[in-house]
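Budget justification aside, the reviewers requested a transparent look at the raw inputs and outputs of the sequence design task funded under Objective 1. We therefore reproduce one unedited record. The lines immediately below are the structure tokens for a 390-residue chain.
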């Protein structure tokens, strides 16, 4: 991202911000009112920056990951927050200490949470904290940084000259759909092949079995619809990876999120029933007119009927009819099915940095040289075996 001069956007003559650390969960929870006021006072408010999102994310944390929330203050007023986690190696000294964004696999955006106009000063304060604490971390990794916020550029500018090595990483796109246009105009612009396939799926599915699409606009942690969604997730392809919602970490996360969502009103669930059985589901977060497809799964027993495609088609059409919605975001990654529905989206950046210590230098050598070389060598061997077996 382009270099950003913090001084050009922050109010002149401000004293440097003071940095505080919060490692205790109770102190983190006490910060909720201040935190959410900062989200609303930021340039780009997002549900993924809300205190409730990070409170849910903490439920997924492993024993080796501990929260590290940095606060940046001007006098008595907190003007920015950086939610991080510190991950220790499995055995002391067996690997680098990783400083990372406080995220879960379902995170679609991460950013510095700052009052508009104080982003540059907060990045400068974060850079000073990283230098002062350089012996307590080895690698820093921040991902899902929205390009519109300029966070990656500000932090690289702040770290220039500190001795901390920084490298940008491959960008991703969160593919999106404009919900303010008429559905007919949008759908007409899609490929003929997709529309034909949708018609075939609808005819096949509705002839084979009774199909019912349900939209639960409010959920709580103990609701039956949520339990049915968790059961669909448990039968999905994500289960062998330990990412389905029936596993302890993801389960605690989604239930805490549902508790917050019931109060705040931004979590909803689409559920497709086939002959009374839950066949597919999509959890969504709606905030500030933006709808995020948070988690979608289907039961492989119904795969021949394409329940996920049916659900996506019909829930999307319903969203176009909601007057207060502006954008539907399908989640980061260029999955083939997403590209059939949209070729546009929002750019997400990532940034990696290494502490200016001998451990940080070794970690940098491994990350930038040794690991890529090992991957290339493995690819060569794999390709050779494939040719020999052909």
């Amino acid at each position: 991202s382009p270099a950003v001069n913090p001084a050009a956007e922050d109010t002149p003559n401000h004293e440097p911000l003071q940095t505080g650390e919060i490692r205790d969960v109770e102190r983190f929870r006490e910060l909720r009112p201040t935190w959410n006021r900062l989200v609303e006072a930021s340039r780009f408010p997002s549900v993924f920056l809300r205190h409730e999102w990070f409170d849910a994310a903490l439920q997924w944390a492993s024993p080796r990951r501990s929260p590290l929330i940095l606060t940046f203050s001007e006098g008595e007023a907190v003007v920015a927050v950086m939610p991080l986690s510190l991950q220790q190696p499995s055995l002391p000294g067996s690997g680098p200490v990783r400083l990372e964004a406080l995220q879960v696999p379902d995170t679609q955006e991460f950013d510095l949470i700052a009052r508009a106009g104080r982003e540059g000063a907060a990045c400068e304060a974060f850079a000073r904290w990283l230098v002062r604490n350089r012996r307590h971390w080895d690698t820093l990794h921040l991902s899902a940084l929205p390009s519109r916020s300029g966070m990656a550029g500000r932090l690289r500018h702040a770290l220039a000259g500190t001795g901390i090595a920084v490298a940008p990483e491959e960008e991703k796109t969160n593919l999106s759909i404009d919900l303010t246009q008429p559905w007919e105009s949008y759908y007409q612009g899609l490929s003929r092949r997709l529309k034909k396939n949708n018609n075939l799926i609808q005819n096949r599915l509705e002839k084979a079995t009774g199909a019912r699409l349900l939209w639960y606009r409010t959920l709580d942690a103990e609701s039956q619809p949520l339990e049915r969604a968790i059961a669909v997730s448990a039968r999905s392809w994500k289960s062998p990876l330990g990412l389905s919602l029936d596993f302890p970490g993801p389960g605690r996360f989604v239930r805490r999120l549902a508790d917050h969502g019931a109060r705040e009103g931004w979590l909803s669930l689409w559920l497709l029933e086939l002959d009374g059985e839950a066949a597919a589901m999509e959890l969504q977060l709606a905030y500030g007119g933006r709808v995020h497809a948070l988690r979608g799964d289907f039961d492989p027993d119904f795969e021949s009927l394409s329940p996920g495609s049916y659900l996506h088609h019909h829930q999307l059409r319903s969203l176009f009819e909601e007057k207060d919605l502006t954008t539907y975001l399908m989640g980061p990654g260029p999955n083939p099915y997403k590209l059939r529905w949209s070729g546009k989206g929002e750019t997400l950046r990532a940034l990696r940095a290494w502490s200016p210590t001998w451990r940080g230098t070794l970690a940098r050598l491994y990350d930038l040289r040794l690991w890529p070389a090992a991957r290339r060598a493995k690819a060569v061997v794999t390709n050779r075996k494939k040719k020999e077996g052909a």
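Residues 1-8 have pLDDT under 50 and may be disordered. The chain has twelve helices and 14 strands. Computational costs for records of this kind are itemized in the attached budget.
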